[in-house]
Specification:
alpha+beta; 2 strands; 35% helix
C-alpha cells in the first residue's frame, strides 16, 4: 500500500519478495537504532568549519556516529 502511494494516485503494486526484504531490512534497522539508544552506542564528534582561504574557524558541526557492536562504524544511512 505504501509503495503504491509513493508512486502517486490511481496506482497499484504487485507484491514481490524484494518488497518483503526491504521492509524487513527497514524494521531491523529501526529495532537496532532503538537498542543503540538504550546501550548508548551513539557518539558525538565536533568538527570545526574552517574557511579554506583564510584558515579562520567559522563555526562547528556535530557529527553523530553509531558504534554498532557487530558492524563497522555507521555515520549515516547508505542509500
Amino acid at each position: 500500500m505504501y509503495r503504491a502511494k509513493e508512486e502517486g494516485r490511481n496506482n497499484f503494486q504487485i507484491y514481490t519478495e524484494a518488497m518483503n526484504a526491504a521492509a524487513l531490512e527497514q524494521m531491523t534497522l529501526e529495532n537496532s537504532l532503538r537498542k543503540a539508544l538504550e546501550r548508548e552506542e551513539f557518539r558525538v564528534y565536533y568538527q570545526p568549519r574552517v574557511d579554506a582561504h583564510t584558515g579562520e574557524v567559522l563555526g562547528a558541526e556535530a557529527l553523530v556516529r553509531w558504534q554498532h557492536p557487530s558492524l563497522v562504524w555507521c555515520s549515516r544511512r547508505s542509500s
